[in-house]
């Protein structure tokens, strides 16, 4: 909090120059500094999070250890895992820790579905979904070309032909309107630097009645050894999906570490 106060006062001083120090008595200037800080910090909670949690506007805070200093609906956005950590996505222990096959089965896919794996990384889920949509396809979206290069190499090695890598932007999945039946985001949404804009693009890409499914580590469970900003509560996810017009359908909590939340676009 001290660093935030220091930065806030520096902003005020920049706006008003040195007039507070030079044009009035030093004691009065000191009192005005305190009053100014109180006014500016009035909208912050005791822990430093913005109080206007219902606002859809982004807010800026001093970044926490794993955050980017950008707040959306009361949640600081987490730093994106770079392609240097790609090996963690394909770790063998993931099968037991997260039960990804159970998550895929819960999607209830049909052979003709067009699925967008948003934040696909190396394609861990895209490659496993592909055989289930053999008459459709998987659009594997990521904003890191290095991740997509690794994915492409895996596709060629395994002979998978119905997964299409798509280079997205931080605020746009780069998907055609009304083109997908389902958008899946596995441990990815909390890292979107522009979640409102990205999800607006996802909603636009969904066919009427299409679904969005998010897998996020359970913030409600302190025993899950994942960094705080890389976990999300059910309430927070529902708040953020409602902000882009998606309707909550159900929450599947059978996975050991993650919520699996289903939302739908109006038909």
Chain-wise SSE layout:
Layout lengths: L1 H15 L2 H4 L3 H16 L17 E2 L6 E6 L2 E4 L7 H4 L4 H5 L1 H7 L7 E5 L5 H6 L7 E6 L2 H14 L4 E5 L12 E7 L8 H11 E13 L12 E2 L1 H9 L4 E6 L5 E7 L3
Parallel strand pairs: 4-5, 4-7, 5-6, 7-8, 8-9
Antiparallel strand pairs: 1-2, 2-3, 8-11, 10-11
How would you describe this protein?
The protein has 267 residues and is an alpha/beta fold. It folds into 2 domains: 42 residues, no CATH class; 182 residues, Vaccinia Virus protein VP39 (Rossmann fold, 3-Layer(aba) Sandwich), CATH 3.40.50.150. Helix content is 34%, strand content 24%. The protein is built from 10 helices and 11 strands. Strand 7, helix 9 and strand 8 form a beta-alpha-beta unit. The longest helix has 16 residues. The N and C termini lie far apart (46 Å). The N terminus is likely disordered.
How many extended strands?
Answer: 11
Distance between the ends: 46 Å
* Number of domain units: 2
Structural class: alpha/beta
Q: State mean pLDDT (0 to 100 scale).
A: 83
Amount of helix? 25-40%
Which consecutive residue ranges, at least 5 long each, have pLDDT under 50? 1-55
């Amino acid at each position: 909090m001290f660093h935030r106060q220091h930065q806030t006062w520096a902003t005020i001083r920049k706006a008003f120059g040195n007039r507070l120090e030079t044009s009035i008595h030093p004691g009065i200037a000191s009192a005005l500094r305190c009053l100014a800080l109180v006014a500016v910090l009035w909208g912050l909670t005791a822990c430093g999070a913005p109080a206007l949690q219902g606002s859809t506007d982004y807010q800026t805070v001093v970044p926490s250890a794993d955050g980017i200093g950008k707040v959306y609906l009361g949640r600081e956005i987490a730093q994106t895992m770079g392609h240097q950590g790609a090996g963690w996505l394909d770790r063998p222990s993931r099968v037991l820790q997260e039960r990804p096959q159970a998550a895929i089965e819960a999607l209830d896919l049909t052979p003709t579905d067009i699925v967008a794996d948003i934040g696909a990384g190396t394609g861990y889920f895209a490659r496993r979904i592909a055989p289930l949509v053999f008459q459709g396809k998987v659009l594997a979206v990521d904003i890191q070309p290095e991740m997509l290069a690794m994915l492409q190499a895996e596709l060629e090695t395994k002979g998978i032909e119905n997964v299409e890598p798509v280079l997205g932007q931080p605020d746009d999945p780069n998907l055609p309107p009304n083109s997908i039946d389902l958008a899946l985001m596995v441990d990815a949404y909390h890292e979107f630097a522009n979640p409102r804009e990205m999800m607006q693009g996802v909603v636009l890409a969904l066919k009427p009645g299409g679904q969005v499914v998010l897998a996020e580590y359970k913030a409600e469970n302190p025993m899950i050894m994942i960094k705080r900003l890389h976990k999300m509560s059910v309430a927070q996810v529902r708040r953020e999906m409602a902000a882009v017009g998606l309707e909550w359908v159900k929450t599947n909590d059978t996975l050991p570490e993650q919520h699996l939340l289903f939302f739908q676009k109006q038909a």
